Automatic annotation (TrEMBL):
Main location as per UniProt: cytoplasm
Protein name per its UniProtKB record: Signal recognition particle protein
Family: Belongs to the GTP-binding SRP family. SRP54 subfamily.
SUPFAM superfamilies cross-referenced by the UniProt entry: P-loop containing nucleoside triphosphate hydrolases, Signal peptide-binding domain
Class of the enzyme per the UniProt entry, highest EC level: hydrolase
Binding site for GTP: 106-113, 189-193, 247-250
Domain of life of the native organism: Bacteria
Localization, UniProt: Cytoplasm
Reaction catalysis annotation: GTP + H2O = GDP + phosphate + H(+)
Residue ranges occupied by any SRP54-type proteins GTP-binding domain in the UniProt entry: 268-281
CDD domains: SRP_G
One function term, GO molecular function aspect: 7S RNA binding
Organism: Kordia periserrulae
EC number(s) on file: 3.6.5.4
Length: 440
C-alpha cells in the first residue's frame, strides 16, 4: 500500500531526520520534495500545495530550526497534517435505525457487491446485528447471483427479485422482508455503470429518496486516483452521502484518493477494503493511515486483526496438544490458515514498522505459504500427527508429491521444529526463557 509515496516522503524527510544541519533552505527544499511526492501519488494539485503551505506555517510557528530535534518535529508536523487531511478522527457508522438501512452507491467494478458482503460479515460478527443483503441491480442478473454467492459465503440472507425491474420496489420489499424476519440491518447493493451517467444518478437518487437510509456509502476503487475524487464529487452532489469506502488498497495504490477525497467532498472515509476475501475490511483510522504512509507501520491494526482471527476454543485445544507433545503438521496448517485470514503478506509486512523499507526489493509472494501447504498436503495423516517419523525416504516422497525440493522439505521440518520448541517454552511459563533464547 502506498509504497511509492512512502519511499518518496521518506527520502524527502531524510535530510531533516538525520543529523545534518537544518536551514531554512533545506526545509524549503524538503517541502518541495514532499509536494512532488504528493503530486506523483496523484493527489490533487491544490490540496498538495495547501498541504505544504500548512506544514511550513506550522514549522515556522513551532520554530523548527531552533528546536533540539527539528527533524523529528518536522515528521510529526507532516504526520499530523496528513492525519487531518484524511479526516482527523475515525468515523463510525450510524446503526440507529430500526432496521438500519445502508445504501451502497458507486460505479460498476468499484467493489460494491464485495464490500456489501464484507460489511454484512463485519456487522454479523458483532453478534448483536442480523443483516440482510438486498440485490437491487436490475440490469445484470449476474450481479444478483454474485450477491447470493457472497451471502452464502458468510451465511447472511440475500433478498432478491429476479425479473422485477423496479429497483425502488425491490429495495422497499427488501426492507419489509427485513422487518418481518427480524433483521436489524439492511444493506442495499445497487447497480453501477462504468461511468457517471444521468440514468444511474436518477435511479440511485430515487432509491435514496424512497428508502431514507441512515447511511449512504459511496464505494470507490482507490486505484483510480484523481478519477476517484471526481466520481465522489458527482455522487456527493446528488446523494449527499455519509461516508466513503475505499477499496483495493491492497494493490499498488498510489494513495492520491485516500489523501484527497476527504477534503474534496468533506465526507469521511469510513472503511477500507484490502483484499477480495470477506475478512479484508478495516475501519479507516486517519492517524494509523498517516503512520503507514510515513513508513511507521501500523502495529495497532495488526494486533487487532490478529485478535479478530483469534479463536479461544481452538487456542485451548492447541495448548493441550502442546502440553502433551502432540502438536503436529495439521495444527501447523491451521496456524497458517489463521495467519492467512489476517490478510496478504505484502499488506501485513507494511504494518510492521520499518519492515517495508527493510524488505524493499525482496519478492514477497501474496501467497507465501503456498509451498508449505503443498508439502503438508503431500504427507500422510500419520506423518502429520507424528512428524518425527519422517525419515529420508519419506522426505523424498513428500517433496516429490508436492513438486518441491527435498531441501525445502528439510527447511519446513526445521521451521516446524523451532515453532514446536518455541510454543513449548511459552507454555512452561517460559516467556523469560524465550527472551533469553532470542537474545542468543
Ligand atoms: P461492483 O461492480 O461494484 O459490485 O464490484 P465487485 O464487488 O463485483 O468488485 C469488482 C472486482 O474487484 C471483483 O473482482 C472483486 O473481487 C474485486 N475487489 C473488490 N474489493 C476489493 C479489494 O478490496 N481488493 C481487491 N484486491 N479486490 C477487490
Amino acid at each position: 500500500m502506498f509504497n511509492n509515496l512512502s519511499e518518496k516522503l521518506d527520502k524527502a524527510l531524510h535530510v531533516l531526520k538525520g543529523h545534518g544541519s537544518i536551514t531554512e533552505v533545506n526545509v524549503a527544499e524538503t517541502l518541495k520534495e514532499v509536494r512532488r511526492a504528493l503530486l506523483d501519488a496523484d493527489v490533487n494539485f491544490k490540496i498538495a500545495k495547501d498541504f505544504t503551505k500548512r506544514v511550513k506555517e506550522k514549522a515556522i510557528g513551532q520554530n523548527v530550526l531552533t528546536t533540539l530535534q527539528p527533524g523529528q518535529l518536522m515528521v510529526k508536523i507532516v504526520k499530523d497534517e496528513l492525519t487531518e487531511l484524511m479526516g482527523g478522527d475515525a468515523a463510525g457508522i450510524n446503526l440507529s435505525g430500526k432496521p438500519t438501512i445502508i445504501l451502497m452507491s458507486g460505479l460498476q467494478g468499484s467493489g460494491k457487491t464485495t464490500f456489501s458482503g464484507k460489511l454484512a460479515n463485519y456487522l454479523k460478527n458483532k453478534k448483536t446485528k442480523k443483516p440482510l443483503l438486498v440485490a437491487c441491480d436490475v440490469y445484470r442478473p449476474a450481479a444478483i447471483d454474485q450477491l447470493h454467492v457472497v451471502g452464502d459465503q458468510i451465511n447472511v440472507e440475500v433478498y432478491s427479485d429476479k425479473g422485477n425491474n423496479d429497483p425502488v420496489a425491490i429495495a422497499q420489499a427488501g426492507i419489509a422482508h427485513a422487518k418481518q424476519h427480524g433483521h436489524n440491518v439492511v444493506i442495499i447493493d445497487t447497480a453501477g455503470r462504468l461511468a457517471v451517467d444521468e440514468a444511474m444518478m436518477t435511479e440511485i437518487a430515487n432509491i435514496h429518496k424512497a428508502i431514507e437510509p441512515q447511511e449512504t456509502l459511496f464505494v470507490v476503487d482507490s486505484m483510480t486516483g484523481q478519477d476517484a475524487v471526481n466520481t465522489a464529487k458527482a455522487f456527493n452532489d446528488i446523494l449527499n452521502f455519509d461516508g466513503v469506502i475505499l477499496t483495493k488498497l491492497d494493490g499498488d495504490t498510489r494513495g492520491g484518493a485516500a489523501i484527497s477525497i476527504k477534503s474534496v467532498v468533506n465526507k469521511p472515509i469510513k472503511f477500507i477494503g484490502t483484499g477480495e476475501k470477506m475478512e479484508a475490511i478495516d475501519v479507516f483510522y486517519p492517524s494509523r493511515m498517516a503512520d503507514r504512509i510515513l513508513g511507521m507501520g501500523d502495529v495497532v491494526s495488526l494486533v487487532e486483526r490478529a485478535q479478530e482471527q483469534f479463536d479461544e476454543e481452538e487456542a485451548r485445544k492447541l495448548q493441550k496438544k502442546i502440553a502433551k507433545n502432540q502438536f503436529g503438521f495439521d495444527d501447523f496448517l491451521k496456524q497458517i490458515q489463521q495467519v492467512k485470514k489476517m490478510g496478504n503478506m505484502k499488506d501485513l509486512v507494511g504494518m510492521i514498522p520499518g519492515a517495508s523499507k527493510a524488505m524493499k526489493g525482496m519478492e514477497i509472494e501474496d501467497d507465501a505459504f503456498k509451498h508449505i501447504e503443498a508439502l503438508i498436503h503431500s504427507m500422510t495423516p500419520e506423518e502429520r500427527s507424528k512428524p518425527s517419523m519422517i525419515n529420508a525416504s519419506r522426505k523424498k516422497r513428500i517433496a516429490k508429491g508436492a513438486g518441491r525440493s527435498v531441501q525445502e522439505m528439510n527447511q519446513l521440518l526445521k521451521q516446524f521444529d523451532q515453532m514446536s520448541k518455541m510454543m513449548k517454552m511459552m507454555q512452561g511459563g517460559g516467556g523469560r526463557k524465550l527472551m533469553q533464547m532470542m537474545k542468543g
